[in-house]
Structure prediction request, 166 residues.
Amino acid sequence: MGILDVLTSMAKTGRLGPVFSVAEWSDVTAALGEAWDIGTMSLSREWPRLFAYGDLELSVCRCRKVSLICVQTWRDVVELPSSVVGGTGIFPAGLRHADVLSALDRADCSWEPCPSLTFGDQRSLVTVQTGANFTFEIPGGGEPVLNVMGLPGDGHDCNVKRRQSY
Prediction:
């Protein structure tokens, strides 16, 4: 499976193997093993935390559910868990805008421009089925290259639930 196949499948289904929005963190680690703990996403709180399996980054809420998912594609290579993508899990980066659009179209994955994240030297699109976001960098006025692909969270806020219980 190529990297474009992986990303279009994620865009259509909203998941990568056991990883999806609101997946139980214990289920993810049972399937993929322990992740690299990048750290907290706030200076004042222990949770949410950011974890990574290579270039697959996951934000995990204090309720231990996956809240955001992204694949960093701006590096020289993209590394994803081989247990869910097959092979070595290492893919070439530098995915061009035209190639991503062609892959989405071939997969019958509808998309539209995302004006709120299109400005300056970046362009963004969102898929209709899952709300997956593809953000491209435009290096030196050249052809846009994929920087990051992300799946939206479910929007829950554990702190809201905690405040409501007082």
Q: What stands out?
A: Residues 3-13 form the longest helix (11 residues).
